[in-house]
């Protein structure tokens, strides 16, 4: 028999899920909690095989309860009961140690199968939630070129970057640095694309705000 604990602040939801699970031969609801704090206190005492946990609850959220139980090493296999509005919480729940994720409108067969899966040591994510998470991840742009920390810029290189971000020409930069007009500038002039990228990087690093010669105009 799989012993289940229901954690949801809505009494009707708990009663509805409990009534459904009573139709399953190998599942028994042994405990109920109305918020995360109650769950944190109750679960270590009851030691259920599986927990069904809502995420949005008063007093203590489901995510906070997951984190607290994980920190104590007392988190049983847990399935998050979520809605279409909870994508961020689902991702946070993954990191907090939950094993499964279901939408609250799942069928009895899906719910029973999920409970059996996590009770047996498996994990699951309902296909509808999986697709939404993947769709969200596809919209993220990875701006990391390398995980290695770049070498720090010298004071001179920082000054050049600041001036480039301000939109100054190579000649203006040379004059600002005190390079004689009849001498060759030792710093290579970047191509237009690299100049724009360098300017953008300087803006993100907050170097434009430090300019005192002229406000940032952006590369021309």
Helix content: 40-55%
Number of helices: 9
Assign the structural class, choosing from mainly alpha, mainly beta, alpha/beta, alpha+beta, or little secondary structure.
Answer: alpha/beta
> What average pLDDT do the residues reach?
76
What spatial form do the alpha-carbon principal axes imply?
A: elongated
Uncertain segments: 140-149, 186-193, 209-220
Give the helices and strands as they follow along the chain.
EHEHEHEHEHEHHHH
Q: Give the DSSP E fraction (strand runs of 2 or more residues).
A: 5-15%
Radius of gyration: 28 Å
Strand adjacency order, main sheet: 2-1-3-4-5-6
What does this protein structure show overall?
- The chain is built from nine helices and six strands; from the N terminus they run E-H-E-H-E-H-E-H-E-H-E-H-H-H-H.
- With 220 residues, the chain is α/β, with parallel strands linked by helices.
- Helix 4 links the parallel strand 4 (78-82) and strand 5.
- Helix 2 packs parallel to helix 3 and helix 3 (62-72) runs parallel beside helix 4 (87-96).
- It is elongated.
């Amino acid at each position: 028999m799989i012993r289940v604990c229901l954690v949801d602040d809505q009494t009707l939801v708990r009663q509805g899920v409990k009534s459904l699970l009573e139709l399953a031969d190998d599942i028994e609801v042994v405990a109920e909690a109305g918020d995360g704090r109650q769950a944190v206190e109750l679960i270590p005492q009851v030691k259920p095989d599986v927990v069904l946990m809502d995420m949005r609850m008063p007093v203590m959220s489901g995510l906070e309860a997951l984190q607290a139980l994980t920190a104590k090493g007392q988190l049983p296999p847990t399935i998050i009961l979520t809605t279409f509005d909870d994508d961020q919480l689902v991702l946070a729940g993954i990191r907090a140690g939950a094993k499964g994720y279901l939408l609250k409108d799942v069928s009895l067969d899906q719910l029973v199968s999920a409970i059996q899966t996590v009770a047996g040591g498996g994990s699951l994510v309902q296909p509808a939630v999986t697709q939404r998470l993947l769709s969200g991840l596809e919209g993220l742009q990875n701006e990391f070129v390398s995980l290695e920390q770049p070498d720090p810029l010298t004071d001179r290189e920082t000054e050049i970057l600041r001036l480039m971000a301000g939109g100054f020409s190579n000649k203006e930069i040379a004059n600002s640095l005190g390079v004689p007009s009849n001498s060759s500038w030792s710093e290579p002039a970047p191509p237009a694309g690299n100049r724009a990228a360098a300017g953008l990087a300087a803006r993100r690093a907050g170097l434009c705000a430090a300019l005192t010669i002229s406000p940032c105009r952006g590369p021309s």
